Every structure is written in structure tokens, then in C-alpha cells.
Amino acid sequence: DSGNIKAGLEHLTPAEQAKARLQLVLEAAAKADEALKAKERSEEEAKKRKEEDQATLVEQVKRVKEIEAIESDSFVPQTFRSSKEVKKSTEPTELQYEPVTVGAGTVDASAPEKEAPPANIPTAIKYQDDNSLAHPNLFIEKAEAEEKWFQRLMALRQERLMGSPVA
């Protein structure tokens, strides 16, 4: 190639020859740079694939070991606990024990009012008059319940006969 380049540049002035050589050098450098970048990209992709394959291999080995542990006789089932539940239950308990009263029973004005922490949300309905979970009016005699049901059914039938739509 160097012989062809010299032959091609002989008819040019020395300044034009230098300019042409510079142009050829820049083109060659750009091609070499692109080749290096392509090589680096392919190496990075190969490294990523290798890491992913290793990660999946590690995950597969871990999964197989966990399955074997579950299938073994020494496995003891445990209840599932979410990490979110653990965080929620630990944070409110810390906030719960802050002192609110100051001096002779006066409330500190600087203490901000906080919402009830999730741990204190009731999970069952409790009525004031009784410690039972259900309202006492829900417990009636079977005969009385059938009589009330029958009266309600008759009232609905009469409404329907009179032309009113029954929901």
C-alpha cells in the first residue's frame, strides 16, 4: 500500500502531500479506534454473559439445595414472615413509648399528635356493652328469626303485588 500511496502523491505539492498523508493517518486511526471499541464491547458482553451464567448457575444450585432440604426428613415448616411486616412492627413500637404528659397532668404542646400505629389497629369488632365479638342482637331464638323472616317475606310480596319494584 505504501508504494501505491507514494505513486498517488507524487504529482501533489509537498503541502498537499502532507495534508493527504495526514488525512490517511486520521482515517487509519479512526478505523483502529472503532476496531478497539468493538473489541472492548464484545469483551464486556462476553463478561456480562459469563457473570449472568454464573449467577444463574449459583441460583440453580441454591434452588436445588433448598428443594433437597425441603424434601428431607429434617425439614421443619415455618410460617412466612414478610420483611415489610417486621419493619412496620418494630418502628411503631419505638414511637409508642414517648412521654406525652409534663408536670401535673398537662399535655406537652411540642409533642406532635401521631396517627395510631398499624400495630394498634383493631382486627375484630368489639362492642361497649359486652366482651363478645358479635352484637347481642345477632343471637335470637330460631322461631323468632323464622317469624321475622316470614314477616319480611310477606311485606316484600305485598309490595311486589302493589307494583313497586323490589330490590
TrEMBL record:
GO biological process per UniProt: alternative mRNA splicing, via spliceosome
Ranges of Basic and acidic residues composition bias in the record: 33-53, 82-91
A GO cellular component entry from the record: nucleus
Region feature Disordered, mapped onto this chain: 33-54, 79-102
InterPro entries the UniProt entry points to: SRRP53
Origin superkingdom: Eukaryota
Protein name stated in the entry: RSRC1 protein
